[in-house]
TrEMBL record:
A Pfam family reported for this protein in Swiss-Prot or TrEMBL: DUF7704
The DUF7704 domain, residue ranges: 4-140
Name under which the protein is recorded: DUF7704 domain-containing protein
Keyword Phosphoprotein: no
Organism: Colletotrichum tabaci
Transmembrane regions: 12-31, 55-73, 80-100, 120-142
Matches recorded under InterPro entries: DUF7704
Keyword line: Membrane, Transmembrane, Transmembrane helix
Amino acid sequence: MTANVPSIYRAVFLYWDPPCALWGAYLSFFARDTTLNSFMPGSATNRDAAHDMLFYHQGGALLGAAVLNGYLLRRTGDLLVWKAAQAAILCIDVALLVGMAGHLSEQGRLSPAAWTGYDWMGILITGGVTVARTLFIAGVGLSRKGKAS
């Protein structure tokens, strides 16, 4: 079935999300200390091989998200494929948000007043695309004619 995807979803999935995912992958592969210190202040001095394994895993997941949105969706009009890609990436988003909540809780920084600029950036970007993906998968704004079952 051919997708008639509203412009707002196209903008988020095709143009906003891939560069954000690539930037996150870059940080995961090449700026691990900066990333660790940004989201968990004072932790970079304790980074070890276990942290690196998790960073590489996260970087790989983000590269996969960039490929799905930046390449695959530009080459298909199948709404089911679009929804499946967003569902897969939604799993990454939810895991990131749960992880952010966990580390903020452990540090006693659940109050937005205690968040750093990096916290705000991570939560707003990830939270925003999570909302967009959820609405898209639920069919909000999609015409009945092009709706996948």
